[in-house]
Structure prediction request, 652 residues.
Amino acid sequence: MIELSGVTKIYQMGGTEVRALGGVDLFIDKGEMTAIMGPSGSGKSTLLAILGCLDVPTSGAYSLDGINVEKMTDDQLARVRSEKIGFVFQQFNLLARTTALENVMLPLIYAGVGGRERRRRAQAALDMVGLSDRMHHRPNELSGGQQQRVAIARALANEPAILLADEPTGALDSKTGTEIIELFQQLHRDIGQTVIYVTHDPFIARHTQRIVRLADGLVAGDDPVAHPLAAGAKREDEIVTS
Amino acid sequence: MNIGESFRIALRALAANKLRAALTMLGIIIGVGSVVALMAIGNGATASITSQVQGIGSNLLTVMPGRLQRGPGAEADAAAYLYYSDYEVLARQLDNAEHMAPMFQSRLQATHDRESIGVGVVATLPAYLPARALELEHGRFFSESESGSQARVAVLGAQTATDLFGPRDPLGRAIKLDGVPFKVVGVLAARGSAGFTNDDEVVLVPLETGYAKLFGAAASLNGRRRVTGILISASSPEAVDGVMEDTRHLLRRARGLKPSAEADFTVLSQAQILDTLGAITTTLTIFLGAIAGISLLVGGIGIMNIMLVSVTERTKEVGLRKAVGAPRRAILAQFLVETLALSLTGGLLGIALGVLIAAGVTAAGLIAARVTLDSMALAFGFSAVVGLFFGLYPAWRASRLRPIDALRYE
Ligand SMILES: Nc1ncnc2c1ncn2[C@@H]1O[C@H](COP(=O)(O)OP(=O)(O)OP(=O)(O)O)[C@@H](O)[C@H]1O
Ligand SMILES: [Mg+2]
Prediction:
């Protein structure tokens, strides 16, 4: 359960202030699947970082499962990230010179998962994103899309309650993109996972139940999706409905 | 998260960045290795010089003409001479002197067959041998009567014997000193150079023979026979100071010096020579220490460079680790173990390198290098501190950033 009220994020750039978020109120329930859309620079990544406890608001309140996040210490936030959140970065952020498998095992190490179980779960996560044959490849030996899928596997490895993804299909062709969305839908359906992802693609966005639109750091629209698409639906649908 | 896990994380991170780890370690190895080696060489040089001087015998006093000036460019006053008569005064009146030998020293050309070398020739009396605590390798020393009869016999230093005769036995053979033929009757045991004089490169001849057959006019002034030095060995180490005082007193009186006049001769004890040499070796040690310090600095800068070059990457790594749930102490533990592993391994390899160089220098016969514990501790400590600081500081700073800021660090 995510509750933002009056959240702002202001960056100081020399003398000028950049208002990345200008007062966002947002409520996302447990188990919801939500897409965040909006033009470039509208604050989507900033919002997602705050939701993922990677950053704190300049002002406003963020309560996650009833606990106020902005009051937490650094280590408490780390614990929240470890226990509840899986995050897929827009730039992947994989550890260089480290194999896909070891990258995926990283969150499990800090969650205190033992060696054997850690390996098993990391392999399962890589299997889910269709990379079981690339486990021992390093990021520079993987394509952009494969790196993105490693990043997704890493976010999933810890079986987090909330999955946050910043343009998870950005570097993927429509077929693998659809496969990833299908995976998200499956997790959402089977284990009631909360999924929130940022996308520029209206077609991808319509695979969720709800689309939040940002513009200039404010929520400009928040609508349910009347008929969420099932992954694998034809893209032509998009033209008819939008 | 336990210690074992921190170890595994750190070792995995090191294994993933072998080149960076190797370069960092290289800085430490070079710094530590050169300090250990240089200080070993300095210590070896100091030890060998002092032991050689001590080998001469701590009871020995040397009387030299002129005044030994202090400070740079110190040299004996050329105008003042010592005479054989000064020796006679001392020989008659000095108490507690066990052995006493006058000597006249000059550099001459020694030849045998086709071999010809310039060598210090010392004309002296048999007491020279015990006074300087020298020993004979074989043969015999010349006698008092041989000096009286101006016999042309010579005793060779070990090196001089080899230079002139090679592996052959020089005993009973003839050499020429500035063309004058001499018969070799003895060879000294090797001792090594000892500060001012080298007992291995020398030819000893009877005093009277030297005056009559070798040195000619150069050895006398207005009919008085000159000596270039008088050796006195005190009967015991405790007697040295008294003998020194008496020698000064007797010589001042014999040479008719007014109480206010400065002495025109110098009496040096072995302790003073050791002091002088001590000053020289201290300079040497400081010099080597400075070089060692520079290599430590260079090594330190090397470590620093490698560490700083990777700060961006490491900051991002810290950001990522935090983003996936690492608490600060896990980050710090990882980096602590990483830098400790590098510093310790590098330090040990550096010590090994230093010891190896020292052993090489010793084996090459240059100097008996002595590796000391303090040099190892100093070098090791310094590079450990540098390594720890430059390894831990960026990680510590990055761990204070919010993950998103650390990930965005450029
Ligand atoms: N660290 C920062 N320092 C200064 N300004 C920042 C920083 N991060 C983001 N901004 C600014 O905040 C605004 C929102 O950025 P954000 O990355 O959230 O946009 P976005 O909606 O994710 O865009 P895109 O679709 O291109 O990824 C932008 O104007 C950006 O310039
Ligand atoms: Mg963005």
Q: What stands out?
A: The pocket of magnesium ion (ligand 2) is lined by residues A 44-45, 90, 166 (CB under 6 Å). The first strand of chain B starts at residue 60 and ends at 65.
